[in-house]
């Protein structure tokens, strides 16, 4: 985009200037997702009012709340708001809450702080805020308004300290004292005709709204619009409610109190259009408002455009004529253009050519508007636009969304005299489609608010004293309407812990209900290095991604949608070292489940001796139960109480095993599905009813359980699937067949609708035909030739593949034919430990019988009589020197 050198040149190139819309535009609020039931209208007004009140305070830290219902749920926005209100820092809290427990802790920190501040909180706890209970959230915000905006501020009229007035009585009495000519008894219907607010504005700033007494109550909306607009422009009283809300019969008193609580501390700004009341005997002037730097007593500069706005909303139909006379009485060229907007405004611009007092004459239907003609002193020294800077979300290249209000700030410190001007060109080059509202916040600081009406590249042109400021124009890409807060991302690849080097860290992004746009992913690995990833669209609203970490350290996964970060982004993932583990886990609870139903899975240790641990993190706390099966496995059950994604961590010595955490999707119970009514029976699920190599079977009857998917799995001890055959013998009755191939424990899962059937998973111990030849013997007594007399030793007998039988062991001295006493220990898994202590040297023979049959094993062990010789010549002794 070419950069114009001056505003005059820009205007010549573009023929007309963009209107500076100083009238207040309706804030576009996100509609509440849940039905507000009865009295919905006043509740929506209250929700809008409280949201505007919160955002007015959060502006100083550049934060915005889009929805009170959802944006406070992690506690961060609530803590930020309270810190701004109290001017105090909150105690330590979680800056990136991911789990529900972290959100609850944050909200708890905020509520405890408020109690220390003297705010009594009744019937509101952390779960209400985290669970987005709108009614209780509004109650909490009302407590903040009462304390920080109504009770705490020092007003110009203080009450007797012995007079125990409520905050409502205090505010009402203050208003009555200010408006003695009107019967004000409440904060609802007494304000509907707009006259009361006009009277209050004129009392706080005499001459700002002097004709309120002659207003027609039938023109309620016009009355409120004029009074509230003047209060916003010149008293700094923000429109926390809108004119159409004040004149609505359903306006609630808490919204009105919130708005009116700004007036006791309101201060009149310099240059306000104060005037005397109109003579009641004369024809009243048109109800036209004029505002802007072009009619201020001072400020305009020679050869720089002077702009102002004429608002005719309250005046009815008519024509606006503007004449500007220079100090010599000669007319200047004036550009006056109708904007065809809600407030029926005209944008007026003229460029004074000489110093001195200019007269600006504004007429409506041939009659002077209030305070016309305006005397404007034009000065000759212009400010330095090079020293002006602008910044804020409204100037970012990406992130601005169509029909969503945004803003940026203009900093004029050390820039000299001048007034900022903003002209916004839409993608078609039109200058009137986007109205820029520029207002002074404080000395040397101005804020420009605007709402783009079209998608595409916009040119934001900022001028000071008629010249373009540094870096102007700014290119801003306006994105389609979307709500990044409705995008969800989940998966193992986004979990804080559990991912290891070399793992495929997968995740899913769902944009359902978020509007137009596609997700954008960036992954930064250790040392700030970008990490490659894959992202594939499954459908229009579902995207699957994965990455493979190659080194230990922190990985940061950043996900944006339509230029805005999604909730919980960025995700910080601590990747640990690669570690192999023989522990296996399987079962439905590792990948799915139903709210308030037990979710189960089995863990096989496969000989690992580390300490096992389990944790489940998700939308709700989940009670965990662990049952030791006594065969090197454990049955783990957890009870989720809310829908959503749960991270199931399986730990060995406090470290996640391979594939942990498992991501389980918990859903609400499907209608008319009752997994607890599934019946499973038969030899194939009996603990000891199955033989190795022989087909077995069991029956599943789900006639009384509703319609849902049936899943049957048989798994061996190391997680390998055993083939199953499922046949339907009658309607909703299935026969399942499988064949055990090993005597090691099997796990049989029967899941219905993602939930384990009663008593599932089943542990099955298959027996093998008696075969003594498959008995294995090993250990120190068998394998170590260096056995000493009177030394306790042992050996192991493994009969897991030999079928079920009784073990007999004898150890005989070949010379004396005496038996050595043995201690036979049954390990209860078809293995045995044999302990013995031979007393004399010699040769010993070990014999075994299994199930009454001789084991084909004959081992002789020799105990030597030799002892170790010591060579004393090689012994050295130190430290015996005589001391002197």
UniProtKB/TrEMBL annotation:
It comes from Polypedilum vanderplanki. Residues 44-149, 165-268 form the Calponin-homology (CH) domain. One of its GO terms (biological process) is actin cytoskeleton organization. PANTHER family: FILAMIN-A, JITTERBUG, ISOFORM N. Filamin repeats lie at residues 280-378, 380-478, 479-575, 575-666, 670-766, 767-864. This is Calponin-homology (CH) domain-containing protein. PROSITE patterns: ACTININ_1, ACTININ_2, CH, FILAMIN_REPEAT. SMART domains: CH, IG_FLMN.
